[in-house]
Amino acid sequence: MLMNCPMVVALSRWMERTVQPAARATLGSPVARIAGSGYACRNLYNLPNERRSQHAYADAVDLPVFFLADGRRIDLATGWGPTRRDLVAGVKLIPIAAKDTGSDGEAGQGASAGKMTAKPASATPAEQASVKSAALIQADPEAASKTPADLLSLPQAKFLRRVHQGACEVYTTVLGPEANDIHRTHLHLDLQNRNSLNVCK
Question: What is the number of other CB atoms lying within 10 angstroms of the CB of residue 141?
Answer without folding.
Answer: 7
